[in-house]
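Quick one, T. Sequence first:
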Amino acid sequence: MVEQKRFALFLATCDSTLVKKTYGGYFNVFVSTFGEEGEHWDLFRVIDGEFPEEKDLDKYDGFVISGSLHDAFGDDDWIIKLCTLCQKLDDMKKKVLGICFGHQILSRIKGGKIGRARRGADMGLRSITIATDSVKPGGYFGDKTPNSLAIIKCHQDEVLELPESATLLAYSDKYNVEMASFGDHFLSIQGHPEYNKEILFEIIDRVVSLKLMEQDLADEAKATMEDAEPDRKQWQTLCKNFLKGRTDQL
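Structure tokens:
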């Protein structure tokens, strides 16, 4: 009998009204994107101080860290605890996929530099360039490595400098680090493979209502998805292959 694979989501954000009503919460959004039949997924709302016991970490095959409205360079108790936990997972060589905030957390604990985005915040559909020379043929991307991929972006911070142990996997005109790996067990992505148009638009409207973004910038962000879509299936292939350990490395 094949042993059931177990994964955990470290949720670093609160469920919005739309996400709760439409999807039952962000946990379901992540599991539907990265999960597969027969797997067991657990939810830890780290933003509320929910963490797994250290003795239980070894029973998991992989972990996902979500995005967040909080700064990955912050010193909130739960962020410090998350960093400490990720350092333990690093020592254990456990698979960890970091998304947006999670991308920055992984760089932080490995000695990288993170902070406010030097060229400003970004929101909308963007194309990022894959550093094909750094990607192993037949790796997590599958049989063919693309030159670029479209992904939904929604962030105001960035990885300013990668640590020496990291491998740069993707970049863009605006940000030097869009994706990186740390050995075979950490993969980080600045964009949101799990987002769709509906989720992005709801976030944009919420940010505008909080007066954190001007309406003209919000309209520009929405316009990026008028005639284009993210490369969702390719991102799913990449992330699933990484989490399930289907190849050695990128």
